[in-house]
């Protein structure tokens, strides 16, 4: 069953130098843009991460330091990528937890504004795990009856993710064929900052999800322990988390005026 769309959705996958959202970099990004009329366009970029790709990581995705040595860095391709996904919803496999937060870091590091306001995100892995609890290769075989050839190639993984979502919509009658439902269903928590350091509680109030202030509202901590806010801004947290915290603090100050 084709996905019902009111605007384009971009399925994407990243290959990276590692799994640390704050420190690691993109070495390959592939995007499959699907339009409401069913048309598709795709593009893949190899990216020079400007840091070393560990051999154990290259052994997984097959991209070596030599392969990207003469490729553009993210800042060079960032505006092209932003233009392609601009005003689109987003889809991926484990994208809510990893790909979107890391992509946001690369954009912000390149001084390219990135925000998820009015953007819906569908994480196909979360749908799969809620329904079957397996991996992308197993999901592709289970739902599409195909073997995933060239796994850990961003282009192959992106196309497989799109096909798996279409098959999931076909298989499960409880999945509504619209982006709003699929985005909500594939979210584990209502996160404020992508990486999940700040989440919405049951009253839709931004709260910390970690550390000594876990479960406490951001507003409460800003009022009662402003040094904690400063500590986060000066520590190794994702830039998007810092951006959201700064925005929440400014909103609080503006509301007092």
Explain what the structure shows.
With 257 residues, the protein is α/β, with parallel strands linked by helices. The protein folds into 2 domains: 9-185, 2-Layer Sandwich (Nucleotidyltransferase, domain 5), CATH 3.30.420; 198-256, no CATH class. It is 44% helix and 14% strand. The protein has 11 helices and 7 strands. The protein has a 5-stranded mixed sheet, with helices on both faces. It has a two-stranded antiparallel sheet with strand order 6-7. It is globular and about 55 Å long. The model has no long low-confidence stretch (mean pLDDT 92).
Query: What fold name goes in the CATH topology slot of the largest domain?
Result: Nucleotidyltransferase, domain 5
Shape: globular
From the alpha-carbon coordinates, what is the Rg to the nearest angstrom? Answer: 19 Å
CATH structural architecture of the largest domain: 2-Layer Sandwich
Write the H/E string, N to C: EEEHHHEHEHHHHEEHHH
- State the strand order across the main sheet: 3-2-1-4-5
Structural class: alpha/beta
Strand residue content: 5-15%
Helix count from the secondary structure assignment: 11
CATH class of the largest domain: Alpha Beta
CATH superfamily of the largest domain: Ribonuclease H-like superfamily/Ribonuclease H
Contiguous low-pLDDT stretches (5 residues minimum) are none
Count the domains: 2
Tell me the span between the first and last alpha carbons.
52 Å
Helical residues, percent: 40-55%
| Extended strand count | 7
Rounded average pLDDT: 92
Query: How is the biggest beta sheet arranged?
Result: 5 strands, mixed
